[in-house]
Specification:
Blueprint lengths: L2 E2 L2 E9 L7 E10 L2 E7 L6 E2 L2 E4 L4 E4 L1 E6 L21 H13 L4 H18 L1 E8 L8 H12 L3 E7 L5 H18 L7 E3 L1 E5 L5 H14 L3 E5 L3 H11 L3 H7 L7 E5 L5 H9 L3 E4 L1 H6 L7 H6 L4 E3 L8 H16 L7 H7 L2 H6 L17 E4 L13 H7 L6 E6 L2 E5 L2 E2 L4 H22 L10
Parallel strand pairs: 1-5, 2-6, 2-7, 8-9, 9-10, 10-11, 10-12, 12-13, 13-14, 14-15, 15-16
Antiparallel strand pairs: 2-3, 3-4, 7-17, 17-18, 18-19, 19-20
Helix pairs in contact: 2-3, 2-15, 4-5, 11-12, 12-14
Length: 461
């Protein structure tokens, strides 16, 4: 007698991403109660019965992709006519002052919600089932994470959300940001039914003082919560720390006890080898955002060295491009051209950075990041439209990095439930949702154009 399951996928090429990086040319996956109960060779139909049976012929099944770092609210500026009204920034610091800090002071709760809704729509279509987002909205702090949670939950994916604590305007504002994170963590993190969890986020070491960094780490320890910070994205971060503290950013964080296994260092573009040793020593993680780094012209992180040192590196988008296949491809290519060495990074290394490595960053690698019995059923089915060469266990990693895109994502399952099926979102009316997003964004653009450019200074010490 066949065992009953909720979903049976069979006849598929399965990229497990388990410890052996096993690829099954023709196999099955059985799912029950949101958990993968079996993965095997063959069709599985003689072993399992299900009302939901998916024929995976000519399909590739992968673990849900994961984004190590994003800003949903970054989507609000795509194509904005406001850019025509401002003096084009010439460096990273001007990018912050003229664009992002002009935007964040205007953000409302509704804009936080639509940014999360739109970002989650794009993630679902890209096969991203898990992420780490943070928002900066200094005039909309208290309760804002509930609005982001609402947008994510309507789509049905999982993730971590946080408020970006900063003291660039006042000391008190930074601690209010930590309190919003703490409130949300207390509300969600111990609830097993919640797919959206909270985390602590500090903007960057050049916009916060030591007291805030210490307090953020204390709260992270108290709640066993993730802790993240932008580090050495631009040289302004390095210069500020040397001028005010006599050490480089990673050295300062190390001396304060901020680094550790729950700590995410985002970007780490301008780090030294000595600082990387501190990252390794403390088992901290790195979120790499290659396309954003290119857009902001800040430089290229030492990812190949990090990997050789066994530093865990996960792939993010920093709120720029939400097609994770594009981010994987950019990672694969950028470091080759930067080093002028085509041997730098392999497809499987890059794919690890978008799956199991991020699960390790999130301390969820025991339940996510690979297709194995006992893990949560976060699964993506890809149906390549027109593969130019055969797809099999020997070629699949090259195809994942070089030829696939979000257009090939057919089905997304999160926690054993369909989020995307045959290319269509299951839980919302996508067309109506996007129409609403656009209405909100157009009003924001009008406010941006009318308000002009704010005058913002960095903190003095």
């Amino acid at each position: 007698m066949r065992e009953k399951v909720d979903i049976l996928i069979y006849n598929a090429l399965i990229v497990t991403m388990n410890s052996e990086k096993r690829v099954i040319d023709r196999g099955y996956i059985a799912i029950r109660d949101g958990v993968i109960i079996d993965v095997g060779v063959g069709d599985g139909v003689n072993k399992y019965s299900s009302e939901v049976v998916i024929n995976g012929k000519k399909s590739v099944v992968i673990p849900g992709l994961q984004c190590a770092h994003t800003h949903f609210y970054g989507l609000l500026l795509t194509g904005s006519p406001w850019f025509e009204k401002i003096e084009p920034p010439t460096d990273f610091q001007q990018n912050l002052q003229r664009i992002w800090w002009a935007l964040d002071v205007l953000l409302s709760y509704d804009e936080a919600y639509v940014s999360a809704l739109m970002g989650s729509i794009l993630f679902a279509h890209s096969g991203v089932t898990n992420f780490f987002d943070n928002i900066s909205s200094p005039n909309t702090i208290d309760g804002v994470l509930d609005y982001i949670e609402r947008g994510v939950s309507e789509i049905g994916i999982r993730g971590f959300i946080s408020f970006e604590a900063t003291q660039r305007r006042s000391d008190e504002e930074g601690f209010r940001g930590l309190l919003e994170n703490e409130r949300f963590i207390k509300k969600n993190n111990s609830d097993e039914s919640k797919l959206v969890k909270g985390a602590f986020y500090v903007h960057a070491s050049f916009t916060v003082k030591n007291e805030l960094l210490v307090r953020a780490k204390e709260l992270s320890d108290k709640y066993n919560a993730l802790l993240a910070i932008h580090v050495e994205e631009g040289l302004v971060d390095v210069y500020h720390n040397i001028e005010h503290y006599g050490v480089r950013p990673v050295e300062r964080l190390y001396k304060l006890g901020f680094l550790g296994p729950r700590t995410h260092l985002v970007h780490l573009v301008h780090t030294t080898n000595e600082e990387l040793e501190l990252v390794k020593k403390t088992c901290s993680h790195v979120a790499h955002n290659p396309m954003s780094n290119m857009l902001n012209a800040v430089g290229v992180a030492k990812v190949p060295e990090m990997l050789k040192m066994n530093i865990n590196v996960g792939l993010g988008n920093d709120g720029y491009i939400f097609d994770h296949f594009e981010n994987m491809r950019a990672t694969y290519l950028l470091h080759k051209v930067w080093r002028r060495d085509p041997r730098v990074l392999t497809p499987i290394q890059v794919f690890e950075m978008a799956t199991i490595n991020v699960a390790k960053m999130f301390h969820q690698d025991m339940i996510l990041g690979s297709i194995e019995p006992g893990k949560k059923a976060d699964i993506v089915i890809i149906r390549p439209k027109s593969p130019n060469t055969p797809i099999n266990s020997k070629t699949i990693y090259a195809h994942l990095i070089n030829t696939f895109s979000s257009r090939d994502v057919d089905t997304v399952i999160v926690n054993g439930k369909f989020v995307l099926r045959e290319g269509k979102l299951v839980n919302i009316d996508e067309e109506k949702s996007i129409e609403y997003v656009h209405r909100v964004v157009e009003k924001l653009w009008d406010r941006l154009i009318s308000k002009g450019l704010p005058q913002i200074d960095f903190i003095k010490s």
